[in-house]
Amino acid sequence: MFAFRNLVVAAGLMAAGLAGGFSSPAMARAGTGIPVIVMGEDSDPASVKRSSDIYKRVLAALKGSMQRYDFRMVDEEFLAADLGWKVRDRRPKVELVQAAKLANSAGRGNLRSRAMVLFRIHATIKNLGFSNKITTRVDGEIYDIASNTFLDTFELAPAAYPAPADCNSVCVSEVVGKKARTIAMNLGDVLGKKLAYLTEGGQQQASAGGASKYDQGLVTGYTLEMNAFDTREALTIVSVMAEEFPGYVSHDLLEKGSVVRKYEYLSRAPAVKLDEWLTILLTDMGFDMDRQISLQVSNGRIILDKIVNTDERPRSEDETARYN
């Protein structure tokens, strides 16, 4: 009844061919434009605060390093300016997470990010009597904002720099600031490789053998809600989404009532593709998408409403076979 995967793969191959031929995954750049927001987590009083010259110089150099891996950096200060927020020192981690999520829900594509990187810079000074030694350490975590998932940690090996015997806080800032480019390049290299590893599977092109470009990569958890569909219609929709939609990971029933069904649906496919595929599926089932169905896919939710009563669909041979 629904030769869905073949239809999607064929369409993807045709689009790639029209765009100028198939490219090798090895030739593709690592990040392929995935939006990443990088934020300094400075709640620890021993860490370098975000208003310091050290932080600013490291972050500025880091943007260039990340661009070389083709990850699109979402600038926190531009984001705050657009949304009228205040960016302050010593913010707790939960506040940074809330800010990134709130920006994603603002409905503006240029403010959205998929991955969030939190990093901390520690700079300590040790008096050696005849001189001072400044040691820096950088560490942090990577999160998938869309699925509320912890992805990985990272840490740069501590680095030590000589400083004058009378070095004060201004001197520390100058000494470490001069090393900002080196720190940022090393940090950018670590982040670029880790993010590329976490996302590269999801960015691979579909192969001639039928493999989907959504078979690997970041997983998003959606809440699938179906309202006013009869049991057979709802089970058919879920079955096709599980068996034929590219990028499917798993699903589970959350709630079942006489009118409403809710599922947890995990997929590596982006919301825009699920919207497209569900439109194809429901049209193939005989629904009029302009008059009978309301479909919303956003912010981790897929809401299907049957807004008018429809005649009972005839059962097909394929559909019967599906449940044997």
Give a description of the structure.
The chain has 324 residues and is α/β, with parallel strands linked by helices. It folds into 2 domains: 32-203, Rossmann fold (3-Layer(aba) Sandwich), CATH 3.40.50.10610; 219-322, Gyrase A, domain 2 (2-Layer Sandwich). Helix content is 36%, strand content 26%. It has 9 helices and 11 strands. The strands form 2 sheets. Strands 1, 2, 3, 4, 5 and 6 form a 6-stranded mixed beta sheet that branches. A hairpin with a 4-residue loop joins strand 3 (115-127) and strand 4. Helix 2 (53-68) runs parallel beside helix 5. The chain starts with a helix and ends with a helix. The model is unreliable at 6-28 and 201-209 (pLDDT under 50).
Provide the CATH top-level class of the largest domain. Alpha Beta
**What is the general shape?**
elongated
Largest sheet: 6 strands, mixed
Number-wise, the strands total 11
CATH superfamily of the largest domain: ABC-type transport auxiliary lipoprotein component
CATH overall fold name of the largest domain? Rossmann fold
The proportion of strand residues reads: 25-35%
- Give, in order, the helices and strands: HEHEHHEEEEHHEHEEHEEH
Uncertain stretches: 6-28, 201-209
Structural class: alpha/beta
| Discrete helix count | 9
Total number of domains: 2
The name of the CATH architecture of the largest domain is 3-Layer(aba) Sandwich
**What is the residue-averaged pLDDT?**
83
Rg from alpha-carbon coordinates? 25 Å
